[in-house]
Design goal:
The strands form 2 sheets. A 3-stranded antiparallel β-sheet has the order 1-5-4. The protein is an alpha+beta fold. Helix content is about 40%, strand content about 30%. It has 6 helices and 5 strands, in the order βαααααββαββ. The chain has a single domain, classed as 4'-phosphopantetheinyl transferase domain (Ribosomal Protein L22, Chain A), CATH 3.90.470.20. The longest helix has 18 residues. Strand 2 and strand 3 form a beta hairpin.
């Protein structure tokens, strides 16, 4: 059963400029695996922006159960292990979300020249 939906859109150029101004920003927002994957793409900034949008969308989809609790940016990771994007949560974040009945987070990513977006659906086991 769907218990939450989150969507977010990011201006690729804005994120790219912010990362150029703040040399450690990418390391604060993304895991090493995310950075490595995106750096291997044609437009790394677009791929990173899509992942940032996915992290925001996860927070929105899970907002009812998080009730003000903070999950770090690097605790939510977008992986491509199966050839399609999947959400991988760090242990503490996974435990927190699972403790509230969410068993699955589905994600969809997209980007154009200027914008990247993501949508996340949180599902319970019911």
């Amino acid at each position: 059963m769907v218990v939450g939906i989150g969507i977010d859109i990011v201006e690729i150029g804005r994120l790219e400029k912010a990362m150029a101004r703040h040399s450690r920003l990418a390391d604060r927002l993304f895991t090493g695996r995310e950075i490595a994957y995106c750096n291997g793409r044609n437009c790394p900034a677009a791929s990173l922006a899509a992942r940032f949008a996915a992290k925001e969308a996860v927070y929105k989809a899970c907002s009812r159960v998080l009730s003000g609790r903070v999950i770090g940016w690097r605790e939510v990771e977008v992986v491509m292990d199966s050839g399609r994007p999947e959400i991988c949560l760090a242990a503490e974040a996974a435990s927190l979300i699972a403790g509230h009945g969410i068993v699955k987070l589905e994600v969809s990513l997209s980007h154009s020249r200027e914008y990247a977006c993501a949508m996340v659906v949180a599902e319970s086991g019911e």
